[in-house]
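fold-stage: in
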Amino acid sequence: MPQDFVVARNPEEGTTLPYLLRVPLGPDGIVLKAKEPWPRTGKVYCHRAAGWPREPEVLEQVPTRSCVRRGASIDLVLDRGRENRSQFVLTRIRGGREAIFWQTARTAKQARPAVALPTARGSGVSALEIVVDSHERYAWRFEHQQATTVRRALRAGDYAVTSGDTVLAAVERKSLPDLVSTLTSGRMRYVLADLATLPSAAVVVEDRYSAVFRLDRVRPAVVADALGECQARFPAVPIVFCETRALAQEWTYRFLAATLVHVGEDTHAAHEAGPMPSAAPPSTAAVRAWARTQGLEVSDRGRISRQVLEAFDRRHG
């Protein structure tokens, strides 16, 4: 059983994961390809490698104090004074593909802003019912917010508020990998076109905008340009980056509640104002007086001729 944590050069040509990691877990260890040799500034994406090369170019070899798997993570403690504790998080993204992220306590803290979410009602709405699209996998439950959810098929968006069968506002939720896939495949235009037909809509991303420029499987400029083009084409549907899943959920809750209140205020104002009064028809006395000033023949009593009425209408709109 290997006792050392080893970092080596990845011999593959043209790879975006230039490092190999041998994690001392199990009889033969786990071999991963990695973007960086240590997670210093952010989480490092890793991918399982086919195996350890016969003659690796070893860059670093450090004895380990412990390497233990706990659920979906592997805790690694190295036998050195600095940069000694890290964790590999095993997860799955859309499509069921495995993804491994290598992080330290510092980078994990950077990914989770130290903020306390408010518990106050969104825009004062006491019982907000949020419709969740029936096709949404791993849907938000809004457990922290004062809202209830009901599942129903939505024509656009993943979360919505409705009035009867009418959708008042909807939010499309995206993880960063899903956002990149939707943008690069061209599907994002169709998503935004559907959302733009609603009175109010938005796209919320469970990550930071800066994460776009750390992508390694696609050129960051391609994604940034696609985002800019989408906002230029559909300015009424904002794309909001909310750093984390929890903050994205909170933003969605506040947005949907505010939309519900705004629509209610507009409806109340329209009801109070009542229908616009139509212009009163002119009196026969006014038409006769005008006709005489124009030299038109008109009787003192009885019906006014159609020609005079048409002339009056043309003059007065």
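fold-stage: in (second)
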Amino acid sequence: MATNSFNLKRSLPLSVLDLSPIIEGKTARDALRNTLDLARHVEKLGYKRYWLAEHHNMPGIASSATAVVIGHVAAGTSTIRVGSGGIMLPNHASLVIAEQFGTLESLFPGRIDLGLGRAPGTDQITAQALRRDLRYDDFPQQLAELRTYLNPSLAQAKMDVHAIPGEGLNIPIWLLGSSGYSARLAAQLGLPFAFASHFSPEYTVPALELYRNNFQPSEVLAAPYAMVGVNIIAADSDEKANYLASSMQLQFLNLIRNNPGKLQSPVENMDGLTTEFEKSLLDERLATSIIGGPETIRTKLQAFLDQTHANELMINSQIYDHQARLRSYEIVAECAI
């Protein structure tokens, strides 16, 4: 791993991960309206990408039809790259994804990213409803099939099925991961890698080291490129940021309890709302989360970069109040200039 210390003054690329949170008292329509508003906001701030996540059977997430929401956001913006963070490939036929993202790239040339994951993005019952074959994991085979639909020169034999639109289009493919599996596969194939430190902090450094140490140059990348997802809740003071962050903590608490719901309004104090065991699980899940006012954000961002040597950060900000969420991304952009 490289040993140089990163400097926030070096124009670190910043991107956004949006789960289109549905907040208590509001609907998916409100969430999708806020998604487009946030995308326009961060585009003006100079953010590089805006990715939407595929989750199913989750009352608090409106981005389940991910390709549709990507089209909505791309149509409402003009320069920011828009993509998936990610498409859960085992939920879909590779041909369908090639056609969907081929269509998006045809409509918005040079602005579409295809981030791919191998988890179902849901529970096992819902995964079955998505018609996934749960008997075995064939993600590498599916990935190879998808890449061949987009680039027929990778095919071993004459192709009888073609992705139209899709074939011949240069759509960047990223592998997403929360452990070492996708890190190793991305390294083997010479693809960019995005790690989900925002919910799997304990594997962050090992997965990044695995990716970089095993990277094989390809026609896609000459050197490894790692983007790291991180929760950031920024406000004008540490006190305000900690208050806003309680919504994210409550969301994770509900997931721990296997009771997912809409994003709840913040609370003044989390004391008494968790058991000691739940609190320890929350602390583990949110270990790399960055919460605070501008100076705290700047200091913690630098420490996170020194630890991960990320080439790019993808920021997830689960904040109940939409205006406070907009302000959070403003503060982060100011801290990274």
